[in-house]
């Protein structure tokens, strides 16, 4: 279907260019003050290239970007535009700050300020019937593994993550390189996770997800720093994988 757009006012994305220009000037002033005479040309070239790219690839962006006024929810539009009730989808949202912050949620350090509103939006069906907007939310920022290694529930309704729905779960993973000066990651300061997804054509309403912790152990004389090669971390039951099962509507 050919897209049509409101031509009576500027599309939302064009109204954001001023703010983008201001941020770029601020960055250049802070990082490259000696090249001040070239800042205007650099920013102008960036805006020109960005404008060309969006106009040439407009089908790659949410329809709401091309309407007047800010998008009510660009992610909702993206899910809705790609949803088909005849198909089973498993949607993963990767976002830096957790939507459900591993408790206790900090009152001072950085966190997603409107996390409850975001969680509510993710747990609300779209106008086309897609639900939930994201089954799995993957985040970082906290620099530790959550749910804890060995404590992954067998189904999302048991994740006990307030404000997210019964069909959703929040995963958080540590860092590959950062020093663990507060011992948040115990003996595994440098870590990542591997996720493997399985489904059966005979029952495509169920998806099995396996989670693996891949890490390197802290050095005895260098606490908080991982040394040596990365490897899969074993669980007390001598298995490497944890399993959680999602139901796809």
Give structural notes.
Strands 4, 5, 8 and 9 form a 4-stranded antiparallel sheet that branches. Strands 1-2-3 form a 3-stranded parallel sheet, with no helix packed on it. Strands 6-7 form a two-stranded antiparallel sheet. The chain has 249 residues and is α/β, with parallel strands linked by helices. 21% of the residues lie in helices and 20% in strands. It has helices spanning 12-15, 17-31, 39-56, 74-81, 115-122; strands at residues 92-94, 136-139, 169-172, 190-200, 203-216, 218-219, 222-226, 231-232, 242-247. The protein has 2 domains: 1-65, no CATH class; 72-247, no CATH class. It starts with 11 loop residues before the first helix and ends with a strand. Helix 5 links the parallel strand 1 (92-94) and strand 2 (136-139).
Which structural class fits the helix and strand makeup? alpha/beta
Low-confidence stretches: 1-7
Count of helical segments?
A: 5
Shape: globular
The SSE order reads: HHHHEHEEEEEEEE
Residue share in β-strands = 15-25%
Question: What is the straight-line distance between the termini?
Answer: 26 Å
Biggest β-sheet description: 4 strands, antiparallel
Q: Give the proportion of residues in helices.
A: 10-25%
**Mean pLDDT figure:** 88
The number of distinct β-strands equals 9
Whole-number tally of structural domains: 2
Q: What's the Cα radius of gyration?
A: 22 Å
């Amino acid at each position: 279907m050919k897209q049509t757009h409101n031509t009576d006012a500027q599309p939302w994305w064009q109204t954001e260019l001023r703010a983008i220009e201001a941020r770029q000037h601020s960055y250049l002033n802070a990082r490259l003050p000696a090249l001040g005479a070239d800042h205007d040309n650099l920013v102008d070239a960036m805006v020109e290239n960005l404008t060309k790219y969006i106009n040439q690839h407009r089908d790659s962006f949410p329809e709401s970007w091309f309407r007047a006024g800010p998008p009510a929810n660009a992610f909702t539009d993206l899910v809705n535009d790609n949803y088909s009730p005849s198909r089973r989808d498993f949607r993963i949202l990767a976002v830096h700050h957790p939507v459900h912050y591993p408790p206790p949620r900090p009152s001072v350090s950085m966190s997603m300020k409107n996390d409850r509103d975001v969680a509510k939006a993710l747990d609300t069906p779209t106008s086309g019937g897609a639900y939930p907007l994201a089954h799995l939310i993957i985040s970082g920022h906290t620099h530790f593994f959550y749910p804890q290694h060995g404590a992954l529930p067998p189904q999302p309704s048991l994740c006990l993550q307030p404000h997210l729905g019964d069909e959703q779960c929040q995963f958080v993973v540590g860092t590959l390189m950062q020093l663990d000066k507060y011992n948040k990651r115990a003996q595994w300061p440098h870590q990542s996770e591997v996720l493997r997804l399985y489904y059966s054509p005979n029952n495509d309403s169920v998806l099995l997800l396996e989670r693996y912790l891949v890490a390197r152990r802290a050095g005895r004389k260098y606490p908080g720093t991982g040394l040596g090669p990365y490897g899969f971390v074993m669980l007390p039951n001598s298995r490497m994988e944890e399993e959680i099962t999602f139901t796809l509507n």
